[in-house]
């Protein structure tokens, strides 16, 4: 048996990200999934770019605020306590709109872990 408690605030934010991103997989000893906590101020996006993953399925659980997710078909508004799921090869860009009243905090879970799996997506190429 094994157990771990991770103080999320003790995990240093990733450098060079569009918003605060704390990668929790390694401190938590997770091998089968990636887990990150994002906190985005108004006008900030979560990912580095509009993208999709070839093999990874992602789930975004909104802890507080409202998350906007742009897809090729529409933009979704996900309120606190709701879950947004993205299947592999489905382009998306998650963000907190510039006119939002408050930050948004999101727990993002991806499986399998997909370092280097993100593929940039340009909606103008469609």
Automatic annotation (TrEMBL):
Stretches for region Disordered: 1-23
Domain Cupin type-2: start-end pairs: 38-104
Stretches with biased composition (Basic and acidic residues): 14-23
Any Pfam family: Cupin_2
InterPro entries referenced in this protein's UniProt entry, alphabetically: Cupin_2, RmlC-like_jellyroll, RmlC_Cupin_sf
Protein known as: Cupin domain-containing protein
């Amino acid at each position: 048996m094994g157990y771990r408690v991770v103080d999320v605030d003790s995990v240093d934010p990733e450098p060079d990200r569009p918003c605060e991103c704390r990668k929790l997989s390694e401190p938590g000893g997770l091998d089968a999934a990636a887990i990150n906590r994002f906190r985005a101020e108004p006008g900030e996006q979560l990912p580095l770019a509009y993208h999709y993953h070839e093999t990874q399925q992602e789930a975004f659980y909104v802890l507080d605020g409202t998350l906007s997710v742009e897809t090729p078909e529409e933009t979704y508004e996900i309120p606190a306590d709701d879950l947004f799921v993205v299947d592999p090869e489905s382009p998306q860009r998650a963000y907190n709109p510039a006119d939002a009243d408050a930050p948004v905090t999101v727990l993002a879970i991806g499986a399998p872990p997909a370092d280097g799996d993100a593929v940039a997506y340009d909606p103008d190429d469609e």
